[in-house]
Amino acid sequence: MNLKQLKNLPGARKVPMPEFVPPQLATLIDKPPSGDEWFHELKFDGYRLLCHLEGRQVRFWTRNRKDWTAKFANVGKAVKALPVKTAILDGEIVALDEAGRASFQRLQQSINKGGGSGLIFHIFDLIYIEGFNITRCPLRERKRVLAELLEPLGDAGLLRYSDHIEGNGAQFFKEACKLGLEGIVSKQADSPYESTRTRSWLKIKCIKRQEFVIAGYTLSDKGLPFSSLVLGFYDRGKLIYAGRAGTGYTNAMRVELKKKLDEIVVDKRPFEQIPKDPDLHRAVWTEPKFVGEVAFSEWTDEGVIRHPSFQGLREDKKAEEVVREDPS
């Protein structure tokens, strides 16, 4: 990487490599923004990770600063082969299904096997490289340098450049939904990298899907470990009931989830208000500790999700941070 080129990047600063940079987060909206000043990227169904390369050491951080380096040893080896000494890469680790689409459940299965085999790291931003912090550089410049860094690798390896289109976000979103993808992320091309939730990054989803706090489970009459998981979200520090998810599990997932939940069973329901759901009379309550990803069709007027399907645990999210996501 040409150091003179980096030095001349608008906003680049020569500084020591930071221990951790909190990620920039996108705001949920209901339709893509218009205008050629927006970059539009595919939204990946995986784990958001910040990858730090320093010399021969690679570390993977979750958005909440959990060190997940050991989970992605194979991807780490690929990062070490990059032709730079220091870098901070922002991207999403995914696992693909037979149709070539990102599968969150397959991702969890791969991680549980150890080493992170069969995974892909889609990299969409570069915020530090060869001694330069480039968070103040415009996104278009950061992505230009990132594309140059990853170009020799092609598009068939473990590390892949997350490309974009400029403008025409509505059509791009339509095509993403046709392909059964989760959605898109739209980013202002001239925006800096900000370690907070912003409106210069916007996410638009093809299907409704978000994290929920797991507050317990209901007993099964069919010999299953449990019938459904009881879900909630936080509003001003209070846990609010959001419904139950009874589908989306493999038998192995049900066994493993019940084992985890039985270790944190409590006598009292964690919800402040009593949910209006008669099936909860057979609920086993737990500490609101675990977070699950759930796809669903819509919210009812009563604030409960319809047709929920459990996708997997989100070990990278804190329960107290889970709120209802509504397009703003």
Distance between the termini: 40 Å
Work out the strand percent. 25-35%
Uncertain runs with pLDDT below 50, 5 residues or more? none
The count of strands amounts to: 20
CATH class of the largest domain: Alpha Beta
CATH architectural designation of the largest domain: 2-Layer Sandwich
Q: What does this entry show, briefly?
A:
With about 325 residues, the protein is α+β, with helices and mostly antiparallel strands.
Topology diagram in text:
Elements: H1 3-7, E1 13-14, E2 25-28, E3 38-42, E4 47-54, E5 57-61, H2 73-80, E6 86-95, H3 104-113, E7 119-129, E8 132-133, H4 139-150, E9 159-161, E10 165-166, H5 169-178, E11 183-188, E12 197-205, E13 208-218, E14 228-235, E15 238-245, H6 251-262, E16 283-285, E17 291-296, E18 298-299, E19 305-306, E20 309-313
Parallel strand pairs: 2-12, 7-9
Antiparallel strand pairs: 1-8, 3-10, 3-11, 4-5, 4-6, 6-7, 7-8, 11-12, 13-14, 13-16, 13-17, 14-15, 17-20, 18-19
